[in-house]
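User: I'll paste a sequence; please echo it back and then give the predicted structure.

Assistant: Echoing your sequence first, then the prediction.
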Amino acid sequence: MKAVLLMLVAVVGQASAAPKPLKADYVIYSGDLGEQMPPTKADRKISINVTGQSAKDIFDSIGPDLKAECTTEKGDRERRKGTVWCFYQPSSGYECYFGFDLRTGKSIEGGEC
């Protein structure tokens, strides 16, 4: 988990060279994102949700905006790069999702509509 957080700091740190605090939640699971099950020895993934200023910094780093497909609020914005997905909603602010397969270390989708 510490390695994942260091990687997040590195991504956000591109906006500035100094580490910044990170507001995030995560879930470790098996199965698919939409039907999460308890993790097993053979299937263990992590989904990370970053919010606040850290999410804004990531959002700003991965432009340009795409057509917002998952939100319907006026003023919604969405950006994606690979498996990193961020969006902005005027009512709730910035959020970014990404994930990792903890068995292989490969980047996977961390959020879905």
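Residues 2-108 form one domain. Residues 1-12 have pLDDT under 50 and may be disordered.
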